[in-house]
UniProtKB/TrEMBL annotation:
Cofactor: pyridoxal 5'-phosphate
GO cellular component: cytosol; mitochondrion
Protein name: 4-aminobutyrate aminotransferase
Annotated signal sequence range: none
Domain of life per record: Eukaryota
UniProt-listed Enzyme Commission number(s): 2.6.1.19
UniProt catalytic activity: 4-aminobutanoate + 2-oxoglutarate = succinate semialdehyde + L-glutamate
GO MF, one example: 4-aminobutyrate:2-oxoglutarate transaminase activity
Biological process terms in GO annotation: gamma-aminobutyric acid catabolic process
Family that this chain belongs to: Belongs to the class-III pyridoxal-phosphate-dependent aminotransferase family.
Sorted UniProt keywords: Aminotransferase, Pyridoxal phosphate, Transferase
Cited NCBIfam families: GABAtrns_euk
Originating species: Aspergillus niger (strain ATCC MYA-4892 / CBS 513.88 / FGSC A1513)
Length: 498
């Protein structure tokens, strides 16, 4: 096993145990791969049990004024650096969860610090505008050099928002308004008196019985409308009234993929056929279909590019909008800037929603008819945040400067190969390994998942789960091969403790 994680260019880290346990890398490894953060720790450091006394005391203090029942750990962000997150007791963990896939270019990134200290940022923070009414004179330039610079192919406009759930809900609103506008005969057709009167009573035709189709195990947010498309866990939805919207089956693939090609193709075809049947037969007409490139919260469920191309064909054939939810998969995590770039679509999605690693949110679109025909129909006070748009611009600059999408693709291949070797050695603990060719967006199932996640902190790794039994990896774009070596060693240590 000692040679499993070596390559011709780098050696494994060695372990040194003392009062403070630190996993150190050899000089040969450091010479083989230049780290993006020169002052980043060379390995995790464990000073106390986790949580330690300082973290426990801070959590108790916080609990008096804030619900801490979902607490993972209290972090000291002043001391966190690059791929490493620090706590209040001197523990420093390799972070492959990254704020639920939301940190793109490392903690305390020097370039983002410069952005944060810029006069543009000061102006955006202390003079935050109500964007729909009073945008800054340079808002178009900020968008053109940032958010729109990263726009998916074929989409050249954006509606900015505050969070992923908000991005999806505003996209749904755009889909409904587009559907009804088309039914009326175009943007110039005025609303009827009946529509104006009935919508104030939450009745049709002003408030029509339309729907958004999502998929079994999907997650699209926790706000009121997005919850009706979220199908991952009951705890998200319990006690909340929901819309009568359809749920299509998402393919349940068998792994390894290459050993089940025919069965998986049949499963995907079954799901496509049922999706089209539901679109045609559902009693509340379907205005749009929303789908994640990889179902993240629902268990890291994958489908092939052929499935998504088939889904796009179905939406086109049935005159239904196609919304791709890239909130968790977007901004480089899968080895492409946008995960749907893996699909090679003939026509782009109608809308692509984003948040998380973008540090801002919204949806991209290209069809001018998706812009509402009157003002104030797609509106709120903030409509996004120029400060966060400036951060996303800085993130894009850092991604381009360091070729981080390419790094993530290469590191992901390296990491996946190491996990494949571990899966062969420990098949009972590392099952259904998935994410090959998808950058570092990797997951596997394990029967003792929750215990695995707890023990990970004991070996210096912060890691997360998804679905009922999946361990999911969500490292940053600055995650490199020497970090992968540490992670692979750590995974084996955890397995041996289970």
């Amino acid at each position: 096993m000692a040679a499993i994680f070596r390559s011709s260019l780098r050696l494994r880290p060695t372990t040194r145990l003392s009062a403070v346990r630190t996993l150190t890398t050899t000089p040969h490894m450091r010479a083989a791969e230049k780290p993006y953060f020169p002052d980043e720790p060379s390995a995790p450091k464990l000073a106390t049990a986790i949580p330690g006394p300082n973290n426990k005391a801070a959590a108790a203090k916080l609990d008096k004024v804030f619900d801490v029942r979902s607490l993972n750990m209290l972090a000291d962000y002043y001391k966190s650096n690059g791929n490493y997150i620090a706590d209040l007791d001197g523990n420093v963990l390799l972070d492959v969860y990254a704020q639920i896939a939301s940190i793109p270019v490392g903690y305390n990134n020097p370039h983002l610090r410069k952005v944060a200290e810029s006069p543009e940022m000061v102006n955006a923070l202390i003079n935050r505008p109500a964007l729909g009414n009073f945008p800054s004179h340079d808002w178009a330039d900020i968008l053109d050099t940032g958010i729109l610079k990263a726009a998916p192919k074929g989409l050249n406009q954006v509606f900015t928002a505050l969070a992923g759930s908000d991005a999806n809900e505003t996209a749904y609103k755009a889909a409904f308004m587009y559907y009804r506008q088309r039914e009326r005969g175009g943007a110039e057709t005025e609303f009827t008196e009946e529509e104006l009167e009935t919508t104030m009573k939450n009745q049709s035709p002003g408030s029509p019985q339309l729907s958004i189709m999502s998929f079994k195990s999907a997650f699209h947010g926790r706000l009121f409308g997005s919850l009706s498309t979220t199908r991952s866990k009951p705890i998200h939805k319990l006690d909340i009234p929901a819309f009568d919207w359809p749920q299509a089956p998402f393919p349940s693939l068998k792994y390894p993929l290459e050993e089940h090609a025919q069965e998986n193709a049949q499963e995907e075809q079954r799901c496509l056929q049922e999706t089209e049947r539901l679109i045609k037969e559902w009693h509340n007409p379907v205005a749009a279909v929303v789908v994640e490139p990889i179902q993240s919260e629902g268990g890291d469920n994958h489908a092939s590019p052929a499935f998504f191309r088939g889904l796009r064909e179905i939406t086109k054939r049935n005159n239904v909008l196609f919304i791709v939810d890239e909130v968790q998969t977007g901004v480089g995590a899968t080895g492409k800037f946008w995960a749907h770039d893996h699909w090679n679509l003939e026509t782009p999605p109608d809308m692509v929603t984003f948040s998380k690693k973008a540090q801002t949110a919204g949806y991209y679109y290209g069809n001018p008819a998706l812009r509402p025909n009157k003002p104030y129909r797609q509106f709120n006070t903030w409509m996004g945040d120029p400060a966060r748009a400036l951060i996303f611009r800085g993130i894009i600059e850092e991604i381009e400067r360091l070729n981080l999408v390419e790094n993530t693709a290469a590191t992901g291949d390296y990491l996946f190969s190491g996990l494949e070797r571990l899966a062969k050695q420990y098949p009972e603990h590392l099952q259904n390994l998935r994410g090959k060719g998808q950058g570092t967006f990797i997951a596997w199932d394990t029967p003792k998942r929750d215990e695995f996640l707890v023990k990970a902190k004991g070996v210096g790794v912060n890691i997360g789960g998804s679905g009922q039994s999946a361990v999911r990896l969500r490292p940053m774009l600055v995650f490199q091969k020497h970090h992968a070596d540490i992670l692979l060693e750590s995974v084996e240590k955890i397995i041996k403790q289970l």
